[in-house]
Amino acid sequence: CSSDLLLAVVARTGFVAALVMLIVLDRLRRLDRRLEEVAVDLGASPPTVVRRLLVPHLHTVAVAAALAVLA
Questions:
Q1: What percent of the chain has pLDDT over 90?
Q2: Residue among 35, 65, 64 at smallest CA distance from 52
Q3: CA–CA distance from 67 to each of 16, 19, 24, 29, 58 (Å)?
Q4: pLDDT of residue 70
Q5: H or E element: which one contains 68?
Q6: 63 sits in which H/E element
Q7: Under a CB-based contact definition with an 8 Å cutoff, are residues 47 and 34 in contact?
Q8: Element (H or E) spanning 54, and its range?
Q9: pLDDT at 67 over 90
Q10: pLDDT in the model for residue 1
């Protein structure tokens, strides 16, 4: 019985991880790479680009992924 539960947890984790990865990668593909280049050209450090550009862009997809995990 314990091994069945472990198997179910591993299967669910693998499914959810793949689903979240697909959702996030799709959103990243739609991001205009020129925005990152412009930010770096204007003097933004890589952590600043992540904090000011990528995090807000991925905020809605993070909520969608969280809902998918909880469903």
A1: 52
A2: 35
A3: 11, 11, 13, 21, 14
A4: 80
A5: helix 55-70
A6: helix 55-70
A7: no
A8: none
A9: no
A10: 72
Longest dimension (CA), the chain: 59
CA 8 to chain centre: 24
Can you tell me the distance from the alpha carbon of 2 to that of 16, in angstroms, rounded to the nearest whole number? 21
DSSP codes joined into one string, 6-31: HHHHHHHHHHHHHHHHHHHHHHHHHS
pLDDT digits over 9-35, tens only?
999 889 888 988 998 899 999 999 999
Residue 59, both tokens: 């905020």
Rounded CA-CA distance 58/28 in Å is 8
> For the whole model, what pTM was predicted?
0.69
Tokens of 57: 């862009």
